[in-house]
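Fig. S4 source data, part A: sequence.
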Amino acid sequence: MMNERKEIAMMNRTKDRNIGMQYKVIGFILAVMGFALGAVAATEPMNVLFIVIDDLRPEIGCYGNPEMKTPNIDRLAAKGVLFNRAYAQYPLCNPSRASFLTGLRPDELDVYSNEVALREKRPNVITLPQIFRNNGYFTASIGKIVHTGLDENGKQVFFRDDLSFDHFFSARNKTPAIGGTGKSRKLGNGKIPWAFWRQAEGGDESQMDGMNSAEAIRVLEEHHDKPFFIGVGFHKPHDPFIAPKKYFESYPLDEIQLAKDPADCSPLHKHAFNVPELFTVDAEFKERDCREFKRAYMACTTFVDAQVGKLLATMDQLELWDNTIVVLLGDHGYFLGERNWWNKLSVLELGARGPMMMWVPGGKGMGRTTDSIVEFLDLYPTLTDFCGITATNKLSGQSLRPVLENSSKGWKNDAFTQVLRKNDMMGYSIRTDRWRLIQWGAQGEDGYELYDHSKDEGEYYDLANNPEYKQIKMKLVNQLKEGFPVLVKPSVELDKADR
């Protein structure tokens, strides 16, 4: 009997050992599977939500302007990285967008106006959304991402590029009639057809941008379970200044603060603006017109901010922040009365500099502001870099990874912007940490402008003809050629100390 008990006990111990070994094997297999699944999750493609706001300048809360009510854009800026010094390559919609959507400079694209489509000049160029599409992403264009595209017959069409996008939506000519009603007024003497405002009846979705945000939300909800690149282009605060009237009510007219130029500022260079007297002489703007212009711009900006807020709320609802890069930028700068100019098309600071911010999931540098000088064309290599996509085009920008993950250490020192004037006179601008130099003409034949940002952030005092700054000027002229190889090298040599 005793021997039988020992035999049974021995059999049970053997069985336990076998079961334990089985559990260990199963545990090992599960661990391996878990590691593999984790590795798959770690390498899962990141999505991109790419938001472009037309004619938006850094006149918003996160850039230190308490007048402007932009809580949603400010939220994104606080969450990601806010770029204090981001520069467009051309201060006009189509050339700027063609540049940052290809990672190439306007000179490389031969696109300098709104009247030419990118694909007319570069039919085979691979755009930023197109490279994502080529790598298996669902791509969508909602509103205004591309400015001028081509339809299936090669005819120019607004906003469309079939090679880049699986899905295209534009609210242009689709808004309900109520959105075209409401109190309105033409500014000045009415000679500028786009210079008017309207406090529109109807809600957000009675305007193009409200319809665009609704479509963007629908597309996000439908396609968020697969890799996506979704571009959402908002039209306002671009003229004409039309927004639902509730947004105008946020800005009492008598509280609008107008820009004031110093009494002793330098005379404007003759090429500073394309039509220098457009608002003062041609349109006869008075103080009331200026106040109403700025108020309407601010109302349109807050209207667009509300649409951005809807996109961010959808990001929250769908839990997309952990796998979606979010970029928000304006397409160039804008003047709001400085130097009596109420428009763009200038390579001065207010024309060249635009707002830009970026959220990268897991990025080390999130939640901060950087003063690193960056260019909009750096976005293409940045997004392909973070998403593990190899660009097939030559790119003229650089990945912003060093800036996004750490600081400006080892980053580039300048940004380049250009603008075309009558008779093919090109203005070339370089912005460094301290200086802005503008050269008019390939040989400087129409002069220079030089501004010292350590003393003159508004660029009111032109030092180009001051002999004390001759060496600085010539150093920057040589540096300018690095960004614009077409320029003729200056004949005046630098002192060795300034090299």
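Fig. S4 source data, part B ends here. The chain has two domains: 47-414, 434-498.
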